[in-house]
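Section handout 9: paired folding examples.
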Amino acid sequence: MQEKSAKKSLILFAIIFSLGLLVIEAIKINYQVTNKYGSWNHYWEHVRLNREKPNLAEEFDTARDAYKYTVENSVLYMIRDGDYVESVTAEVVYDDIRSAEITAERIGSWCNLDKAYVTVQLDTSFNSIPDLDKCNMLLKIQDEIEHNLSELYYGSSYYQMFEQYKYQPRDSIEYKDHYLWIEYTQRCTFTAGTTEYSPDTYMFSVIKNNRYTIYNCRESHGEVVKLIKYDTGTIEADGSWTSDSEKKKSKDTTTTNSSGKKDTDSSGSKDTNSSGKKDTTGSSSGSYDPYDVHDYDSADDFADDKYEEFYDYEDEYEDEDEAYDAAEDYWYDEY
């Protein structure tokens, strides 16, 4: 009787031990699959895609190169009389981002980033027309080019293939044992001789001889109606942009620190120049504000009200337009 009982216990132990080994093995397999593929669903998608479309990666690469060739050889803009356009050239640059390489334990991931750069060469006579007209003209040209670029990208077999075979929950395609997603950016640059223009609905920048000028754009009903000078500066040798106002502040700080105090007259008030002009510099401390700049909420409101004073009191402005721009610059510096 005892022998039968011992046998049953041994059999029961063997069964429990075997089940334990199976559970441990199942946990191990589940960990390996979910760690590498993220989920069992994605693993089965991986198996299905490799069975049904074993050459997907090669076909995808071919489609990408075809998209690049199409963009670089398409007519992105139809040149018209009076638009100052001499030529339009395009280049697609692959700038792939590899965030994780494939390992034995984990599937890799990266992004195919396609950058479409378009250069529009303008006749140098374009430089002589007013900046506001330049901005509106270039915006219309740019809109047409960007529309055509978007149609080429989203209509390409490259993009369509990605949409067809991507794994929806991750929004990525199975590609050479990687999770792959795709993105594209576009940039349009206009050049007229040595001058470069970059138009936008909100900003318009002009670069010439390593000097830049940036305007804020006031838009109404789809058209820029006013340009407000926002910043000027220098493009340094390393490609960085240094604002004139920042240089001025740095210089003023250095001068103040080296002297130990600001210049004052015998009564302790801020010095004025010999011509009797109002001092229009360095009022950020709040100690002297001859134009009441803090009473105005915007640069153009301030300039509308004060530009005549700038023109009357300051000798260096050739006309009222220049004084208006200076008043706006003053508001940005001091507010």
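Moving on to protein 2 of 2.
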Amino acid sequence: MTSILTGDIIDSRKQDDHFWLKTLKETLATFGESPKYWQVYRGDSFQLEIENCENAFYAALKLKSHLKSTEDIDVRIGIGIGEKEFNMAEITASNGEAFINSGYAFDTYLKKQTIAIKTPWHEIDEELNIAFDLALLTMDSWTKNSAEVFKLSLESENITQKEIASILGITQGRVSERQKRSGFESVMKLEKRFRKLIHQKTQL
């Protein structure tokens, strides 16, 4: 079983791709090599495979925070979990249940929210999509500064506010404020819940 993230940049035609394409590709590259594990296609769309399904929401958070901290660019991501029937050298040539579910989440659920999931388990989809919808009330409103602090906090699990303040050249109090505005603590509780639910299902 694997997970596939299908995404695109929101209002990409209104943006200069010079500002976000490099960030998108660099962030995707942290998950593996292209074109086997990720590809950018049609200019502003991408697919990414995360073989450990428990990491799929983390990957979505990483992509969103990197892009919104660059030039306030946002992204829509459909997460699909399922089997992978055909494993090709290029991810866009592979297919299977995970790809179908990712495409379904992207085409069906992302009309109303910017992150959604489709799995083989209806009760999981229902719980997580409601939770995503609520979390996105905060995440979709991230400023560049909030996204930047979220990104640093996300990627370095044990990093302190003092260390983040030093990196960004701001006070520890500002870091604390930006973490609160970004909803970091609550979003990471959801990320932990996501891991637990997916782990329970994939280990059956």
